[in-house]
Amino acid sequence: MTSAHRATNSSILSALQELGTTWRWGSPPTLFTISHTPPKPTVPAVLAGSVGGHTPLGLLEHWIDRCRRHRGIVHTQRDLGVNAVAISFEQDGQHVAYAMDRAGVQYLALGRQHASEWHLTSGTDALAATLLPDLFTERLAELVWRLAGPPPPAPGSRIRDMWPTAGLLDLDEDELHERFAVPPPTEGHTRLVAVASVDGLAAVHGSSTALTSTGDQRVYRLIKRDADLLLLGAATIRAERYGQTILSAPEVARRRANGLPPYPAVAVVTRSLDLDLTGPLFRRGTGRHTPPRPILIVPAAAATDGNTAVAEHAEILVAGEHDVDLTRAVRLLQDRGHRRIVCEGGPSLAGQMAQADLLDEICLTIAPQVLAVAGPRITADSATQPASGEWQLSRSLLDEVGNVFLRYARPS
Q1: For a disulfide at 270, which of 208, 234, 263, 286, Cβ 3.0-4.6 Å?
Q2: What is the mean pLDDT of each run of 10 residues along the chain (412 residues)?
Q3: Is residue 5 included in any domain, yes or no?
Q4: How many other CB atoms sit within 10 Å of the CB of residue 325?
Q5: pTM
Q6: Same domain for 204 and 97?
């Protein structure tokens, strides 16, 4: 699994401590927004107090409902530069100030009336110090996603429109999502994501790492975020030590609010089950929401070869007799509800998917590099005849370091 480091913002803890020192005991639960724009001081601003006898959880749910129904609230708070959302309330004789920032880091300040010392903590599981239910964190995460939005793009990853309309120079996360969104398919939609150099290489020594960039990773993560299932070949799993990207609490909240499970499933096409079961993909996570066990798609001939150990780490799905039948595999996955499939390759799997006419869309990044060495293209297959069908460009974008993002679709 892959997990990005999420830095703690000490100014948010300071803001929570300020909430505690100015708290009037006997007050109802209150929501606050916290904006942090250095060098300006971080100051909590009251969003709303409890009305109608709301419990802390009820207040969160009330505001989530308001945000769902009134987009103006969301736009206003994002324009104010909200970085975190906090809720302040009393519980069992102590004051609780609990916040979460856009990256999913949690902050907690606990204090008692007339006490001079405060217990301050932060991390991805700060609420464990209280007896509040996990649902409390989930509701705050959804409110953070709605009011604060995602973290700002990493340096070098600003993206602009190119075609069919050139215009916006710095797309925010919602605007970028619109550029790559797929309507909920009724019968299934399979999208290939790939990166290639200017001279057509898709990998060096079996890995695409040399071609990736912060802009490419931004688009790649966004596309994966809306997927039901990620489909890969065994060679890619081995070469890249592939593991699920760990999502932040607001990212999980966004998926759940859009009717998706917390994490996309991962399916691996393998003829032999020759996989390292100690690798990142097979490591089980901890916490309330963790990626599901991977699915291994195998032919019947491989499924009978001593797979007891494999079955402890993954689900086995049989498609085909002596080789994997990709058409059947995709149909079986869609029958399970995995309508939006993102194929991450590698080249061999991508080539077979193209030859079998199983791709509805291709999202291709052209990296501004000329490698001038031997290596694979984004597709590779032993077929002697070209794949059939035409493709139409539906969207192109450009980032600030020269990566070009192309979205191709089948003609309607």
Answers
A1: 234
A2: 52 86 89 76 64 82 92 87 91 90 92 82 78 88 93 90 85 92 86 96 84 94 95 93 90 93 96 90 81 94 76 91 96 96 94 95 97 90 81 96 96 80
A3: no
A4: 18
A5: 0.89
A6: no
